[in-house]
TrEMBL record:
A GO term for molecular function: transferase activity
Pathway where this protein functions: Protein modification; protein sumoylation
Subcellular location: Nucleus
Domain THIF-type NAD/FAD binding fold, first and last residues per copy: 16-431
Complexes and interactors: Heterodimer.
UniProt protein name: Ubiquitin-activating enzyme E1-like
PANTHER family named in the record: SUMO-ACTIVATING ENZYME SUBUNIT 2, UBIQUITIN-ACTIVATING ENZYME E1
Ubiquitin-activating enzyme SCCH domain mapped to chain residues: 301-367
InterPro entries, sorted: ThiF/MoeB/HesA, ThiF_NAD_FAD-bd, Ub-E1_IAD_1, Ub_act_enz_dom_a_sf, Uba2, UBA_E1_SCCH, Ubiquitin-activating_enz, UBQ-activ_enz_E1_Cys_AS
Length: 589
């Protein structure tokens, strides 16, 4: 007699079999991201009887999220996405345990042992750097990853397993042509977020048709105050339409670059893992921009203007658009070929970027970037989320194997079907991420040094101390001509979740993660088994270049890496460690 099936689980048991259902209920899964795909995915997971879910997302809910992130309502604006998503999802299935964390997935606390505690990881991120990080951590932990994403009506789902399939980095990623709009109002992390804010929020509120003019419902309690505050902010911005000249400039600057930023700074939890924004100082900028010719500056579209110059251009464009709007009777829309609106958006975006510590851009670059915004589609997110769960169930049904899993694509261009699948591709032997060997270093709690690691590599894994190079996050920490760090504590390179990489000319890179342990230093695969470090993959072109010739300067002309002469090495102190530098840059991972 099989395990008892609850009434709500009966349809799943009939479809999947009681044994597979039991595997789902016992599994522990990590869901990274509670945005468009993440909300749909969390709902699908709890309805599919995944009973142990950890959810991580750093962002807070913005009004612009509500049209496609259906776990959120207006009374949730300003709250943590992860925590609100948990509360809403539990209404679908109260028996689920959800550990919601408002945190940055890049934080050191989410290390390899953290990932190894899960049977399955779902990635629902829209950030390239974070997606690559989760991909690498799952490879190191040898945990199945289901990567997903959407762009407009297109989407994809990719199951990934170390040594079995290609990873997220196996194929080069195209330059991103569309940009998420989830966090532009509160926590911009790229300059493009500031451009979207200036183009799609600030310009319409001041001179166009407001996209957020109303629709707030009356609520009571703690959340009502948040909604009331947002409604008041939107109303304040629209009220500025009645002003003109210098009075308008001062009022807008105080509102959007000082008062609103101060309010964001007051949300302490949002800045626990990132630098808070810095409001502008209008009095200083007024002094600096005196004497600047804003009309002339606006024509210098291929030069990155200073903050004071952007302030001057912003003030000039604001007054010009006010004159064109005829007291608010004419709506103004952004047009990249309309100089006043382009000047306004460019200067406003750069001022906001400066506030959040992001790089400023030339107007020429902003004009190019502003045309690449594709809205998220709720149905695309829902379809991709359901496909993620289907692939996850297949993995759990096969004891974390990938039998039956496919690479799945969602496209609106096909005439006969919108969902297409293809077999999973094998790992790319030339991939710099998944072609490595990943292993665990059991670091003794006291006394282990970098020399101990070097000795283990040479004595047990076949490395030659004359050829091996060791690098950490700070840079290269050992080469034969550079042994200053050999007496340093080994654990310092691992304690913040970092990796140490051993490289030579013949083997693939050995990527090590650390764990404190009793006894002597040892390296294993994370499951107490011996580590194997295979030979490097060589392309046909590299095989041709094995016979390396040297030019008159002693440099290799092609092919194999040649060890640098001690005369060509420079050293730099980084965080108390000596690291090698080449020319002006530190060699980093």
């Amino acid at each position: 007699m099989g395990p008892k099936v609850q009434p709500r689980e009966a349809p799943l048991a009939r479809t999947l079999s009681p044994a597979v259902l039991e595997s789902i209920k016992r599994s522990k899964v990590l869901l990274v991201g509670a945005g468009g795909i993440g909300c749909e995915l969390l709902k699908d997971l709890v309805l599919s009887s995944f009973l142990h879910i950890t959810l991580i997302d750093l962002d807070t809910i913005d009004l612009s999220n509500l049209n496609r992130q259906f776990l959120f309502r207006k009374q949730h604006i300003g709250q943590s996405k992860a925590r609100v998503a948990k509360a809403t999802a539990l209404q679908f299935n109260p028996s689920v345990t959800i550990d919601a964390k408002c945190a940055n997935i890049l934080a050191p606390e989410f290390n390899v042992p953290f990932y190894k505690s899960f049977d399955l990881v779902f990635n629902a991120l829209d950030n390239l750097a974070a997606r690559r990080h989760v991909n690498k951590m799952c490879l190191a932990a040898d945990v199945p990853l289901i990567e997903s994403g959407t762009t407009g009506y297109n989407g994809q789902v990719q199951p990934i397993r170390r040594g079995k399939t290609e990873c997220y980095d196996c194929s080069p990623k195209p330059v991103q042509k569309s940009y998420p709009i989830c966090t532009i109002r509160s926590t911009p992390s790229q300059t493009i977020h500031c451009i979207v804010w200036a183009k799609s929020y600030l310009l319409p509120e001041l001179f166009g048709e407001s996209g957020e003019a109303g629709g707030y419902e009356e609520t009571e309690g703690e959340d009502a105050a948040e909604v009331a505050q947002l409604r008041a902010e939107a109303a304040e911005l629209r009220m500025l339409r009645t002003l003109a000249g210098a009075e308008l400039v001062d009022a807008v600057v105080q509102k959007v670059f000082v008062k609103d930023i101060q309010r964001l700074c007051g949300m302490k939890e949002m800045w626990a893992h990132r630098k808070p924004p810095t409001p502008l100082d209008p009095s200083r900028l007024h002094d600096k921009q005196s004497g600047l010719d804003a009309a002339d500056l606006a024509l210098q579209d291929q030069r990155i203007l200073s903050i004071a110059e952007n302030f001057a251009v912003f003030a000039h464009a604001l007054e010009e658009l006010k004159s064109r709007s005829r007291g608010g009777s004419v709506d103004i829309e952004f047009d990249k070929d309309d100089p006043p609106t382009l000047h306004f958006v460019s200067a406003a975006a750069n001022l906001r970027a400066a506030i959040f510590g992001l790089p400023l851009q030339s107007e020429w670059e902003i004009k190019r970037m502003a045309g690449n915004i594709i809205p998220a589609i709720a149905t695309s997110n829902a379809l991709v989320a359901s496909l993620c769960v289907m692939q996850g169930i297949k993995i759990l049904a096969n004891n974390r194997g990938l039998e039956g899993c496919k690479m799945v694509f969602l496209t609106a261009k096909s005439a006969d079907r919108i969902v297409a699948a293809q077999p999973l591709a094998p790992p790319n032997p030339a991939c710099a991420v998944c072609s490595c060997s990943y292993a665990r270093v059991r670091v003794p709690e006291k006394g282990a040094t970098l020399r101990d690691l070097l000795d283990f590599l040479t004595a047990n894994l076949g490395y030659d101390s004359e050829d091996v190079s060791i690098a950490a996050q700070v840079g290269v920490i050992y080469e034969v001509d550079f042994d200053d760090n050999l007496q340093n504590s080994l654990w310092q390179y691992f304690e913040k979740g970092g990796f140490v990489v051993a490289s030579d000319n013949t083997k693939v890179d050995l990527v090590l993660w650390g764990e404190l342990a009793d006894g002597e230093l040892r390296i294993d695969d994370g499951e107490e088994s011996q580590v194997q470090v295979p030979e490097k993959y060589k392309s046909q072109e590299e095989d041709k270049n094995d016979d390396v010739t040297m030019d008159d300067e002693g440099e290799s002309v092609a092919g194999v890496k040649r060890k640098r002469s001690p005369d060509n090495l420079e050293e730099e102190d980084v965080g108390g460690n000596k690291v090698l530098v080449v020319e002006d840059g530190v060699i980093v991972l």
